[in-house]
Amino acid sequence: MMSLTNEDALAANEELTIKIKMDKEKNMLHITDTGIGMTKEDLVKNLGTIAKSGTSEFLNKMTEIETEGQSTSELIGQFGVGFYSTFLVADKVIVSSKHNNGTQHIWESDSNEFSVIEDPRGDTLGRGTTITLVMKEEATDYLELETIKNLVKKYSQFINFPIYIWASKV
């Protein structure tokens, strides 16, 4: 939305893309976009909610809503369920993000707690966000090229930006 109302939001790089890279050696999956990125405050406010909410509070609320016969779909925005689901396949999630109005920061969580620091590498993104998943041992199938291709085809058919997939060299 910001890119539609503020022409400067895409000033650093007007091309919008998504890049996915599987790194089997390091057991990591990297997803990078060239969107508007997030400030430190955005990372704390939006992603920090996940760590503040915690699994037990989420499960308690979900049980309470189901007992009352209500839909649990409204929990998604409150608890960051969509993003929180990354912890089903990852032991750790690292989000590096750079907004035009600020320095690049790193948000990191193991699902129990989170930290946000200024990125010691400096500005490597220009603008955008990289999500790195340190995969669980039982989820290494998500580092396979065919698995990623199938997931992208299945869930990204209505995305209007190019999606590039790279596999690590062996």
UniProtKB/TrEMBL annotation:
Keywords: ATP-binding, Chaperone, Nucleotide-binding. InterPro entries: HATPase_C_sf, Hsp90_fam, Hsp90_N. Pfam families: HATPase_c_3 (PF13589), HSP90 (PF00183). It comes from the Eukaryota. GO terms for molecular function: ATP binding; ATP hydrolysis activity; ATP-dependent protein folding chaperone; unfolded protein binding. Belongs to the heat shock protein 90 family. PANTHER family: HEAT SHOCK PROTEIN 90 FAMILY MEMBER. This is Uncharacterized protein.
